[in-house]
Specification:
Largest sheet: 7 strands, antiparallel
CATH topology: Pnp Oxidase, Chain A
Helix content: 25-40%
Structural class: alpha+beta
Strand order of the largest sheet: 2-1-5-6-7-4-3
Number of strands: 7
């Protein structure tokens, strides 16, 4: 993706944290020369060699998996908060803009065997069940219910390139207090999140 240099975030620790917290992503590959995208959880992990990977699964009813080739390159997109920024919040005249956080990952795909798929499903469910008042475990589900796993394909993606765009009103540092104030008044979750991201950048 096109990222002006001053919007690039090359702090891998920060980018990894972003992916962990925004792991509902978009998996993109080619089907007969046409881009194809699926919205799914894509979880960040490391393999037994210490390489960064993503893991996920899609339904066998989704034709995308039929075009999975071992070692083929795929694109994964993770979207964060975004918000309109009015130029009325600036001290000097300028055009309005949009602030946002987004990460693109390119990597090489590998289809999981049944054991690896089940391991990744356990990790996925355990991660999100921690937030539940009455968490469940796949270990507790009946064999009949778990037969549904036969209807999905699991995969891993070895990460080869990370592109992280954090567009947070860079170059308008004198206007940051007013921008943050107005974003907080917007009463939207994304507006508040972008305001916090700008504040966090100021302290680093």
């Amino acid at each position: 993706m096109y990222i002006p240099q001053h919007y690039r975030n090359e702090n891998l620790k920060e980018v990894r944290e972003f992916i962990l917290n925004n792991s509902f992503g978009i998996l993109i590959n080619q089907i007969e020369g046409k881009p194809w995208a699926t919205h799914i959880p894509l979880e960040l992990d490391t393999d037994n060699k210490g390489n960064d990977i993503l893991y996920g699964h899609i339904a066998k009813a989704n034709p995308q998996w039929k075009y999975f080739k071992e070692g083929s390159e795929v694109l994964c997109i993770f979207n964060g908060p975004h918000s309109y920024v009015s130029s009325s919040w600036y001290a000097e005249e300028e055009v309005p803009t949009w602030n946002y956080i987004a990460v693109h990952l390119y990597g090489l795909l590998k289809i999981q065997d049944e054991k690896a798929l089940m391991d990744s499903l356990h990790k996925l469910v355990d991660k999100y069940e921690r937030r539940s008042e009455s968490p469940i475990s796949l270990h507790e589900l009946s064999r009949n219910t778990l037969r549904q796993v036969k209807g999905v394909i699991g995969f891993e993606i070895e990460i080869k390139e990370i592109q992280a765009a954090y567009k947070l009103s860079q170059g308008r540092e004198d206007d940051h207090p007013k921008i943050i104030e107005e974003l907080k008044k917007s009463n939207t979750r994304d507006g508040h999140a972008i305001a916090e991201a700008i504040k966090n950048k100021q302290t680093k």
